[in-house]
Amino acid sequence: MSHLVFDSPKFKNWKRNLESNGITIDQIEVIGEISRNGTSLFTALLDCQLRTHEGITIPRCVVLRGDGAIAIPVLNCVEDQTVYTLMVEQRREVDGRISTEFPAGTVEPTMEEPLTVAVQELEEEVGMVVSAEELQLLHPYPLKPDPSILSAIYHYFYFEREVTQAFLNKMDGRETGCHEDHEYMRVKVQKMSEVSQTNQTTFSLAGLKLLENKLGKTFK
Known about the structure:
single chain; alpha+beta; Nucleoside Triphosphate Pyrophosphohydrolase; 8-stranded mixed beta sheet; 3-stranded antiparallel beta sheet; 6 helices; 11 strands; elongated
């Protein structure tokens, strides 16, 4: 089944990025792979020997994953003048606990644009229809969550809207997610000032920091 790895957009994108930075793949072995429906690669573990343009050999393991797009709603409540956001709660496989996260999705390289994915995930995960024109980049470059082993990079976006308390009440607790993909989520309305106090995910805390830098304010 290794042909799924070497023929996949994920592998080709990773290889192209390496080569564009002067890295040569001398050896590579697929240790393991997970596919969806036997036709598309979900993730893979690669053992490889790389060579830099300086001639240095570096043996490394790489987890091959698709990139991600994360979208942060910035919702200004007209009644209490407080900034809220919408997050999603879902049970995560790392420890089995409920995790609270900003809406996010996987970007299939060469097939989708991060901006398009962000728009889709906002509608799917929190039920908000947001145009591509509303979304703005939070950082000019995508972030690398673990450059020592993970191939994926993450693109952060945000949008701002004025909303009413009635809207927030309507959104809070909604059940969402793509059940066909075994996603079961619940929308959580949260004050932006409480995200750093109640959240334990790197992605959400990094997004909050990028948002503060972009808007020139601190949410406390």
